[in-house]
Amino acid sequence: MRRGQLGQTVRATLLHSVGRPPIPRDRRAISLSKPSRRSRGTVTVQDVARAAGVSAMTVSRVVNGGSNVRATTKAAVLEAIEKLNYSPNSAARSLAAGEATQIGLLYSNPSAAYLSQFLIGALAAARRAGCHLVLEACESERADDQAHATRQFASTSVEGVILPPPLSEAAPVRAELEAAGIPWVSVAMGLPPENSLNVRIDDFGAASAMTRHLIDLGHRKIGFIRGNPNQSSSAERYRGFVAALEHAGLDLKAMPVEQGYFTFRSGIVATERLLDRKDPPTAIFASNDDMAAAAVGVAHRRGLHVPQDLTIVGFDDTQLSTTVWPELTTIRQPTAAMAETALNLLLASLRTQRAPDGSEQDEQVLDYELIVRESSGPPPSGKRG
């Protein structure tokens, strides 16, 4: 598959049935056949919404017995349903009948290490649940490309969609799914909106914990590499960093900050800028492991020893964190478990025919863990606070 080329995306359908023995890793097959399209004559929730003059989400609330719908609106929706002979929630019917549900996973992530862990969790959960998982890439950042790819994906037989970052926060993607009446679950959104299913960790608390670790080691000049500005988790991690500094009474203005994009390349550029400063930091906190690994590479190239000359820490605890040398101190984000939780949360929503209503049970916040390895240590002599 060529990167960034829409319309040529690989649609991999992995079919697992309950009770089937696991396929040996070296023989695990990926089918490139396209899932069946919905019949042209099938009435969709979007058709009902158009006829009633409301949004697809409003139709879903009426169908699923939501209480926050005005009587006049509800009457208009019910009239449109009767007129169009709309039969809602095929996903719930297939679940009730014991048929295999088809769940979509639309992905675009610059971190191959993160994505691989996420897919491992999603595939394992799909196998246990006996459902089909349909994968499709959407690697363009252009809004019209994202909308087109999602529209094409929504026209297939997927009954719900998992959105890992950064697509979990792509407005065109969510708008197309809502218009099609297809429920979705977002993963790793730092600030999830109401009326949504979401799985995340406490990015703010995790970043604060890592910053306190660096402060406890004696660092008083900590460089920070921010993540993609289009992802709210990036902002939450930066907020956690700032909060820990303020709590310790440290001067935020003395802490150099560079913009990154969760990519290895952006980590190189940001680290070069941090270390080119007249008074460089004694520690670098990168917002993910890809950028932290890049920082380690830059340090080695400059003849700096990690952590004796420079402490470097990351976030996520992907496989990359233990393949670089020295191994990274990082925040363990349970990526595979988040994918599994997302799929189970989506299936539960389909089974109960419940549209997301913003209530507490629509969000799952998983635990994080500070993992201390060899890349963090006290600052060099003479630079300790």
Word description of this protein:
This protein is α/β, with parallel strands linked by helices and 385 residues long. The chain folds into three domains: 45-88, Orthogonal Bundle (434 Repressor (Amino-terminal Domain)), CATH 1.10.260.40; 102-201 and 336-366, Rossmann fold (3-Layer(aba) Sandwich), CATH 3.40.50.2300; 203-333, Rossmann fold (3-Layer(aba) Sandwich). It has helices at 45-52, 56-63, 71-84, 90-96, 112-129, 143-154, 171-180, 203-216, 232-247, 264-275, 289-301, 335-351, and strands spanning 11-14, 102-107, 132-137, 160-163, 184-187, 197-201, 222-226, 257-259, 283-286, 311-313, 330-332, 363-366, 369-371. The strands form three sheets. The protein has a seven-stranded mixed beta sheet with strand order 1-3-2-4-5-6-12, covered by helices on one side. Strands 8-7-9-10 form a four-stranded parallel beta sheet, with helices on both faces. Helix 6 runs parallel beside helix 7 (171-180). It is elongated, with a radius of gyration of 23 Å.
Radius of gyration: 23 Å
Number of helices: 12
**If you average the pLDDT, what whole number results?**
82
* Distance from first to last alpha carbon: 51 Å
Encode the helix/strand succession as letters. Answer: EHHHHEHEHEHEEHEHEHEHEEHEE
Q: What gross morphology would you assign? A: elongated
CATH C-level label of the largest domain: Alpha Beta
Give the tags.
385 residues; 434 Repressor (Amino-terminal Domain); Rossmann fold; seven-stranded mixed beta sheet; 13 strands
